[in-house]
Amino acid sequence: MSSSPDIESIEKEPRVDVDEAKDYVIDAEAEKRLRRKLDWRILPVITITYTFLFLDRGNVGNARSAGLVEDLGLGTFDFNIGTSLFYLMYLIFEIPFALLIRKVGFQLVPISIIGFGVVTISTAFIHNKAGFYITRIFLGIAEAVTYPGLSYLLTRYYRRHELTSRVGCFMLVAAGCAGGFGGLLAAGLLSVNHIGSRRSWENIFLVEGILTAVCGIVMLFIFPADPEQSRMLTPEERQLAIARLYVDQPEIKETKEHINWSLIKRGVFSPTTLACSWLYIVDNLSVQGLGVFLPSILKLNYPESSTVHIQLLAVPVYIVAMVVSLACTLGCIKYRVHWPFTLFGGVLTLIGYSIWISTPATAAKARYAACFLNLTGGFINGPVVVGWAAANASPDTLRAMVGAVVTGIGGIGSIAGIWAYVATDAPSGYHAGNSFNLAMAASLCACCIGLYVFQRFENTKRETGGRDYRLEKEGVDRLGNLHPSFRYIH
């Protein structure tokens, strides 16, 4: 007998009286209990989800070091082209998918997990360049649903100053676990001669794809719904959850506004969104470039090491980056600032790439230490920049879209990161790629300081009444972050 819900049960899904939620008086203790419940119910689910996304995105680097390029007969730049196609699809589809999720609901996320699990399994059966290109294209399309869905889910449950640490939790724990566990898993799978008809790097895609698809099926039943319909909350908790959405958005009449072109333009072209998009582009240069090429870079440092040993060398790099970055995101919520931590990440990256371009190829230990600095700097800025953008976006439509805009446009950095490390530059220790990353890290520091100055200036202007003229126009309830009483969390 089918267990699918019938029409009557769907119509009886719990909903909140939104008008009552506007006037709801938030009790500090009740809010604390709700926040603790959300942390235990939501964060583990989205962290596991993003872990599999990061695992399936980055396993191509492990496969490359295990002979994928040679077995598929890829030319000098074919690997870079195929990897770029993934990020290009991600860039094209992320914003439309973000708006689609807002309209149809969060169940698209588990479906996307199943989708990119199936694509990953398919990658274990490719035999040539065309197969490599096709699977990377479909993987990018499938994964373009997941991140905007996860980030938007958080904005529906958490307040502005709570966002960055939660984004940091799921991004960093997932990236650290995927990078560390992925290296260990790859090492183990490469030690196995055959799994059925598959061998070597094919084992990586086969096993990790199966694990991902199973995860997606489980998520169909446990993935959180919107707070207005959530069954994991009591009626009182749902009302409190919706009331929290009104607190940080001055004079709004509803938490989900209709999508229109004016609102979209405002979200995309705001100074905060544009600056954070650039910061994320630069950040992706390090994170995605290193994520794909770290095993290959380590192979240059330790040419006598086995493939399995190289995979194991990558593990502590991810673990250290995760721990330090988590501490920084907790600092964001404690002090309610973003720019010092973004600047700190940029400085670490500057130092790391400076070591790379100033040391000889024989300085293996110094260059290995530089990998820690580069990845840690990149890990810090991923969640901090996304949190910085989302915390300063209002109303709801903007907040849903801004995360997708920042990470979608940030895909340009991922593509650039892939082309920063080309095979022809390997004999020099990727000197050109590291020099490029060094220059971009310097631009990140400058952009970070510029955004801080702008937001501080805006806050001062609003405190002195310099933006009160906006209250004289119609549509005050749609001003959101442009409202005179709205203060940027810089």
From TrEMBL:
Chain segments annotated as transmembrane: 38-55, 81-101, 108-127, 133-155, 167-192, 204-223, 275-298, 310-330, 337-356, 368-390, 402-423, 435-454
Pfam families found in the cross-reference section: MFS_1 (PF07690)
Keywords: Membrane, Transmembrane, Transmembrane helix, Transport
Keyword Aminoacyl-tRNA synthetase: no
Membrane topology according to the record: Multi-pass membrane protein
InterPro entries: MFS, MFS_trans_sf
Cellular localisation: Membrane
GO terms for MF: transmembrane transporter activity
Main localization, broad class: membrane
Gene Ontology CC, one term: membrane
PANTHER family in the cross-refs: PERMEASE-RELATED, TRANSPORTER, PUTATIVE (AFU_ORTHOLOGUE AFUA_4G01000)-RELATED
Identification of the protein by name: Major facilitator superfamily domain-containing protein
Organism: Schizophyllum amplum
